[in-house]
Specification:
The structure holds two protein chains of two kinds. Chain A is 54% helix and 14% strand. By secondary structure, chain A is of the alpha/beta class. Chain B is an alpha+beta fold. In chain B, helix 1 packs across helix 5 and helix 2 crosses helix 4. The radius of gyration of chain B is 34 Å and the shape is elongated. The chains are: A alpha/beta, B alpha+beta. Chain A: It comes from Streptomyces triticagri. Chain A: One of its GO terms (molecular function) is DNA binding.
Chain lengths: 214, 444
C-alpha cells in the first residue's frame, strides 16, 4: 500500500515509517506540517493517509482540517487520524465526509503493531475504525437517550465493537460468544436504533453513526 | 428568583461618566405627572423620617436594635426606587455602594456602627431621607404649586371683586385685587401659569430632582475606589487560592497516577530483564503487563490534561468546546453560539469550566432530560445561559458548587444569576466582561 504519513514528532514519524515498512507498506511521503500534507495528498493520491490531528504551524487541528479538505476533494480517500486525545466532535466532523474509509484512534494504539496495521488495512479497504474510547465516551454519556436505553448490556457491548469496525468473527472473539450469537444481537440492535432493513454492511456503519450523530 | 448581587465592592464601573452628559428633559405633561410622583415619594420619605427618628432615639436599647434592620431595608428600598426613577426618567445613573452585612443575630448592632461612619451608603441614605421631605419635596412641589396658584388666580378673577369686599382685601401674587381691572390682570397671570407648569416647570423639576438626588446619594469617588479595591483584594485572594488548589490537585494526580504507574512499569521491565534467560514465558506476561501500565498512565495523563485545558478548547474555542461537552453529556443538549471571534483565553477557559460544571450539576441533580445552552457576546459582555427542564429548586446558597463557580467568575468581574423555581425550569446566567481578541480561525 502507498501511504502518506503526517506526524510532527520525529521519533514517532520515524518509528511509524519503519513499522509500516516492516509490514510491507510503502510510505511515499512523511510530512511534518499541515500545508505540506495537503500538497502531498493531492500529488501522491495514496491508498491511505495516516494523519496526526495536531500539526504545525498552528498546533491545533490542522491535521483534521487537511484530512476533511482532502476527502472533500477526493471522495473516498481513506484517512486514519491519530491523536493524543479522542474528541467526539472531531469524530463526527470526520464522519460527515462519509463513513467509509475513515478511522480515528489514539496514538498509543500504535504500540500494538500488528493490531495497528490491521486497523490500517481495514480503513484502507473502506472500513471504519473508531477508537474504543470515543465510543465508550458516547455510550456512557448518552445512556439517557431512549434508543440507546432500550439496548441490553450485551447489545451495547456488541455495538461498541461494531463501532470499532470489527467483523462478526472479531466481535465473537472479543466478547467470548459465538458468531451466531453476535449475528442475533446485531439483528436486535438495528430495529432498536430505528435502522431500516437494507444491506447489512451499510447498516453497520449507520449504527455507528447513530451513536455519533446526535 | 435567587439572584446574587454583585457584592459591595463591585459597583458599576461607569459611575463617573454620567456627571458630564446633559440630562434629557421629559416632555411636557409627562414631566408634570412625574414631578407629582416624585412629590408623593417625598411625602413617603417624610413619614419614613419620622419613623427613623423614633428608631434613632431607641437605638441605645434593644428595641432600636431590633427595629434597625427593617428600617435600613425600608430606606434602601425607597432610595433604590428613587435611583431607578432618576436613571429611567433623566438618564442619571447613581451608583450605590452598600456594605455587605452578614445575616446574623447581631445585625442591628452591625448596622448601628455603619450609621456612625459618615462615608457609608447607609448613613448617607438616612441623611437623605431626613432632608428629602424638604429639599426633594420643594423641588418636586414646584410645578404643582404653579398650578394651584394659577387656580387661585382664576378664582380671584371671577370672585375677586366680591371677595375683596367681604374679606377686607385679597392679594394675587403681588396684585391687590380690588376691582375689575386688577381681577382681569390676576386672571391673565393665573392662566399663564398652567402652560408654564406643564411645559416648563414640570420637566425641569424632574431633571433638577435627579441632580439633587445624585448630589445626596452618590458615593464619593474615593469611596467607590475603596469598594473596588476591596473587591479586587477579595477576588485576587480567591484566585490565588483556586490556583494553588489546582496545582496541588495536579501534583497529587501525577504523583498517585502516571508517576506511580511509570515506577511500576520500570519494576516490571526490570523483572522481565532478570527472567529473560530462565523463563521467556513469564517475560511475555510481564511485557503485556508493562504495556497495560503504559496505556493506563497515558489515559490518566489524558484526563489530567483535559482537566487543565481541554485540547478542543485550545483548538477550536469556546463554541466547539461546549458543543463537544454537549455531545457527551447525559442530557439531550442543544447549543447555540453567536461569537464573532474568540474571547481572551483566560475568560474562555473560565467560561468553559463553568459551563462544564453547571451541565454536570444539571445531569446529576436536576432530573432534567433536556438542556439548552446559549452563548453570545453583547455590549462587551460574554453572556452564557444554561437552561434545563428539571425539577428546579437549585439554590446558590445551599451547595458549594454554584458558589464556587461564582467565585471563580468574580476574578474576571463576572457574575452569576440562578433562576430556579420549584418544578423548574432552572436557568443559570453568567456574564463576563471581555473583549473578543483573535479572529475566528475555524474553517468549518
Amino acid at each position: 500500500m502507498r501511504i502518506v504519513l503526517a506526524e510532527d514528532h520525529f521519533l514517532l514519524r520515524d518509528g511509524l515509517s519503519r513499522l509500516l515498512g516492516a509490514f510491507g507498506h510503502e510510505v511515499v511521503a512523511a510530512v511534518d506540517n499541515g500545508p505540506e500534507l495537503q500538497r502531498q495528498l493531492t500529488e501522491q493520491e495514496p491508498d491511505i493517509a495516516i494523519v496526526d490531528v495536531r500539526l504545525p504551524p498552528g498546533f491545533s487541528d490542522e491535521g483534521l482540517r487537511a484530512a476533511v479538505a482532502a476527502r472533500q476533494q477526493q471522495p473516498g480517500l481513506p484517512v486514519l487520524l491519530l491523536s493524543q486525545y479522542v474528541e467526539p466532535l472531531y469524530a463526527r466532523e470526520l464522519l460527515s465526509t462519509g463513513s467509509s474509509g475513515v478511522g480515528y484512534v489514539l496514538k498509543e494504539r500504535v504500540s500494538n503493531g500488528a493490531e495497528f496495521v490491521a486497523t490500517i488495512d481495514r480503513v484502507a479497504s473502506g472500513g471504519t475504525a473508531m477508537d474504543p474510547e470515543v465510543v465508550s465516551k458516547l455510550v456512557t454519556g448518552k445512556n439517557r437517550d431512549e434508543p440507546m436505553n432500550s439496548l441490553t448490556e450485551r447489545e451495547r457491548e456488541v455495538l461498541e465493537c461494531l463501532a470499532q469496525g470489527r467483523s462478526n468473527a472479531g466481535i465473537a472473539e472479543a466478547l467470548f460468544i459465538t458468531e451466531k450469537a453476535v449475528a442475533k444481537h446485531i439483528g436486535n440492535i438495528f430495529p432498536k436504533l430505528g435502522l431500516p432493513p437494507s444491506d447489512t454492511d451499510n447498516r453497520r456503519v449507520l449504527a455507528v453513526l447513530a451513536y455519533l450523530d446526535r | 428568583m435567587d439572584t446574587t448581587r454583585p457584592s459591595a465592592g463591585s459597583v458599576p464601573r461607569s459611575s463617573s461618566g454620567t456627571g458630564t452628559a446633559p440630562a434629557p428633559l421629559s416632555s411636557g405633561p409627562v414631566g408634570f405627572r412625574r414631578s407629582l410622583v416624585l412629590w408623593g415619594l417625598s411625602c413617603r420619605a417624610f413619614w419614613l423620617s419620622l419613623w427613623l427618628f423614633f428608631v434613632y432615639l431607641t437605638l441605645s436599647g434593644p428595641l432600636g436594635l431590633k427595629l434597625m434592620p427593617s428600617a435600613v431595608r425600608r430606606v434602601r428600598s425607597l432610595a433604590d426606587r428613587q435611583r431607578a426613577l432618576a436613571a429611567e426618567w433623566s438618564g442619571v445613573e447613581i451608583p450605590a455602594a452598600y456594605p455587605e452585612i452578614p445575616a446574623s443575630a447581631d445585625q442591628g448592632r452591625a448596622l448601628r456602627t455603619k450609621l456612625v461612619d459618615k462615608d457609608n451608603q447607609i448613613a448617607r441614605d438616612w441623611r437623605w431621607v431626613t432632608l428629602d421631605p424638604i429639599v426633594g419635596g420643594a423641588i418636586s412641589f414646584g410645578p404643582l404649586l404653579l398650578v394651584l396658584s394659577g387656580i387661585w388666580g382664576l378664582t380671584t378673577a371671577v370672585f375677586g371683586a366680591q371677595l375683596s369686599d367681604s374679606w377686607d382685601s385679597i392679594w394675587y401674587l403681588f396684585i391687590p385685587v380690588d376691582g375689575v381691572g386688577t381681577a382681569i390682570l390676576a386672571g391673565l397671570l393665573g392662566a399663564v401659569q398652567f402652560p408654564l407648569a406643564f411645559f416648563w416647570a414640570g420637566p425641569r423639576a424632574v431633571r433638577q430632582h435627579s441632580r439633587y438626588l445624585r448630589a445626596f446619594l452618590a458615593p464619593s469617588d474615593a469611596e467607590l475606589m475603596a469598594g473596588r479595591i476591596e473587591h479586587l483584594t477579595a477576588t485576587r485572594s480567591d484566585a490565588v487560592d483556586t490556583q494553588m488548589a489546582e496545582i496541588r490537585r495536579i501534583e497529587r494526580d501525577l504523583h498517585d497516577g502516571a508517576q506511580a504507574r511509570l515506577v511500576a512499569m520500570g519494576m516490571t521491565l526490570d523483572a522481565a530483564e532478570q527472567l529473560l534467560e530462565s523463563n521467556p514465558d513469564a517475560v511475555r506476561a510481564l511485557l503485556v503487563e508493562a504495556r497495560q501500565s503504559s496505556n493506563k498512565a497515558l489515559a490518566e495523563l489524558r484526563d489530567l490534561v483535559r482537566g487543565i485545558h481541554p485540547p478542543v478548547l485550545a483548538d477550536r474555542g469556546l463554541g466547539d468546546a461546549v458543543r463537544s461537552l454537549a455531545m457527551i453529556s447525559q442530557l439531550r443538549t442543544e447549543v447555540e453560539v453567536d461569537l464573532p471571534a474568540r474571547p481572551e483565553p483566560p475568560v474562555e477557559s473560565a467560561a468553559y469550566f463553568a459551563v462544564s460544571e453547571i451541565l454536570a450539576n444539571a445531569a446529576k441533580h436536576s432530573g432534567a432530560e433536556r438542556c439548552w445552552i446559549d452563548i453570545r457576546h453583547e455590549a462587551g459582555m460574554l453572556r452564557i445561559t444554561v437552561t434545563d427542564n428539571g425539577r428546579g429548586g437549585a439554590d446558590i446558597t445551599a451547595g458549594t458548587g454554584l458558589r464556587g463557580i461564582e467565585r471563580r467568575l468574580a476574578t474576571f468581574d463576572g457574575v452569576l444569576a440562578v433562576s430556579s423555581p420549584l418544578n423548574g425550569p432552572t436557568m443559570v446566567t453568567m456574564e463576563l466582561p471581555c473583549a473578543l481578541s483573535s479572529p475566528k480561525t475555524t474553517s468549518s
